[in-house]
């Protein structure tokens, strides 16, 4: 019997997390994509703490993305995350796509973060 979408995504997520890990010097950029919104955070897996977070629900981002497509909104979230990270002195990170394909909104978020100065 074939795997459901959720089971397949969970397997992919576990496979990625075996390799990608965040440290204080190079945190993990974790992406979560729901049907309407997108969330991203930089995580230090050594301590289990979130260093920086951004989402399409934050007030400053929500004002910018009003009337944009979801892909353009994801790009703005990436830019907002990178700006916050650079304020805290974080320049490098490891990208964790969270079981999603590197396509569409996930790719747009990554490109937005790169445009704003985050390196991965």
UniProtKB/TrEMBL annotation:
Family annotation (CDD domains): Ribosomal_L18_L5e
The keyword rRNA-binding is annotated on this UniProt entry: yes
An annotated GO cellular component: ribosome
GO biological process, one term: translation
UniProt KW keywords: Ribonucleoprotein, Ribosomal protein, RNA-binding, rRNA-binding
A GO molecular function held by the record: 5S rRNA binding
Record function comment: This is one of the proteins that bind and probably mediate the attachment of the 5S RNA into the large ribosomal subunit, where it forms part of the central protuberance.
HAMAP family referenced in this protein's UniProt entry, alphabetically: Ribosomal_uL18_B (MF_01337_B)
Family: Belongs to the universal ribosomal protein uL18 family.
Oligomer status and interactors: Part of the 50S ribosomal subunit; part of the 5S rRNA/L5/L18/L25 subcomplex. Contacts the 5S and 23S rRNAs.
Protein name: Large ribosomal subunit protein uL18
Organism taxonomic ancestry: Bacteria, Pseudomonadati, Bacteroidota, Flavobacteriia, Flavobacteriales
């Amino acid at each position: 019997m074939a795997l459901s979408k959720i089971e397949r995504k969970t397997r992919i997520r576990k496979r990625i997390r075996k390799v990608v890990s965040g440290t204080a010097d190079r945190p993990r950029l974790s992406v979560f994509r729901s049907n309407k919104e997108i969330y991203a955070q930089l995580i230090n897996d050594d301590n289990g703490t979130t260093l920086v977070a951004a989402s399409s629900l934050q007030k400053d981002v929500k004002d910018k993305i009003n009337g944009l497509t979801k892909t353009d909104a994801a790009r703005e979230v990436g830019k907002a995350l990178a700006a916050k990270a650079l304020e805290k002195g974080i320049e490098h990170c490891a990208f964790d796509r969270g079981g999603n394909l590197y396509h569409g909104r996930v790719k747009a978020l990554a490109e937005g973060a790169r445009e704003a100065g985050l390196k991965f």
